[in-house]
Amino acid sequence: MHNNESVLIDGFIAAAQAERDQPLPQDVAFETFGAQMALREWNLSDEEIEAGRVGGGQDGGIDGVYVFLDADLLDEDSEIFADGFNPKSVRKGAELVLRVIQSKEESGFGETPLDKLDSALGRLLDLNLTDENLLVYYSAEVIGRMRLFTRAWTILAVRSPQITIQVDYVSKGDTANPAAAVTQKAVDLEATLERLVPGSDAIVRLLGAKELWELANSAPEYDLQLRFAEYFSKGKSYTGLVNLADYFDFLTDEDGNLRGHLFDWNVRDYQGGVAVNKNIQETLESDVADDFWWLNNGVTILCSGVNIGGDKTFTMQNVQIVNGMQTSHSIHSAILKIGADVERARGRSLLVRVFETQDGETRDRIIRATNNQTKVPDASLHATEDIHRQLEAYFLANGWYYDRRKNFYKNNGKPSDRIVSISGLGQSVMALGLSRPDDARARPSSLLSNPADYKSIFSSKVPLATYLWIAQFQRRVDDLLLSPEIGEPYLRTNFRFHVSVYLATKLLGARIYSPAQLATLATQPVKLSLEEVVDAMDLIVEEAEEIAELEEFPLDRVAKSRAFAEVVIDLALDQSPDADAAVVGESTDGEG
Question: Which parts of 104-255 are beta strand (E)?
Fold first, then answer.
């Protein structure tokens, strides 16, 4: 029987589908919605949600896998997996979290999905089983995503990480009275997980229609209050001292979780156990008489409006903490352990600066200035550069949304298939504009950390219209690759950029060395048919499988190889009606 929440959820998903240029298959739409709701507190972008989706054949009942280390989402090119990584660079007792999601668009909760999860996770978390052993049962994509956790767990074992495993079983059922067998099997699965991963805390949660609707109907709270002990002001800027316990309340939601969305505009993620955070933590945990603000640079808050009450309480609109993420995380972690009342009795304070402005350029200057005073890699500050502000304005003028500030447009209700992140555009330009689909596939999170690559990808000499066309071209390919005709999801994951560079090279009739070469194509709208994309994928997969069999490589290794990228480009040139055309603008520096 359908309850009201189930009907509302259907309407929510239908509205999101209607906003898309290419609606998702219904099962994918529900899986995506389920993952968004289950992971709401992590504030992931739609691209990050999609990267963790693994549903399909041989998925073992698993539809999504996400791994976090000290609140940082891990990917296959994360620093922890690099050759020569030193585990001692991660703080002792770091928080390692595995989130697994199973979504069923059904009106109840059954025993079978939990049985499948118990069986699959029992194998996937068994460190004695090799990838070859597991490929008998599960897809390479499921194995690869779970390996993010098992590899991190193994690497960090010497640092005694605090491990949490949470499995969310999502459906449109009623969680008030699940069948007794379902409840027991959830308990059994928790026991299985804690046995397989000694010392871990395991949670199996049922998310039904009521919980999903409550999550979908709750917007992140950006209008918050913060009480100052003392402050002074000049114009629309304020500086003062805030009791650490009051700041903890400001940072924390009603469930005790850190309000992660307050850091959407921060230039870097929480850095975990680096030296500066260890020092902050030690200061917070010590009993020395020195006040905290004597030993810490404080935090910087941007907001669009401020009202100050008689008790020095600031009511701020559209709050963003743009400097002080490390301090904020450390304060939240330390006070969560000892309790806000204990900290309040200590009376320690934090230096807080508040700037009230609605001007984008002013915001960017403050973000860059406050973060340049500490050692931050320049790559982290790219979002404030002119080219990204120009791209944001150009995309907006053409009905697309360049997510220069993570999740800004998502939180403002814009259609997800028209939102493009900096890293997402970077991958697309690397593939289409530089003919490097292998690097786009192999380096999803670290692509822009190399200054030379960054310069090749983002150049003021490349027309803004070309960047938009590249984003639209890759998005069209991605949307069509969700069609059932494509086959297993891992094919899309591995070869989406190869399909794009194949089609773009074929269309241009020449090898692409610079995104500037695509300027002529960018004068026309993107027109790709499902047949073109399916044919390209079939051809690419056939070649990849031949190489994989010959070299005895897994498909993902083939996808990440430079040699295979050259094979794809040569195939495109052979197929192009303009194969004999002269190469346009043979530049390798991205400057056109």
Answer: 162-170, 201-207, 224-227, 230-234, 237-243
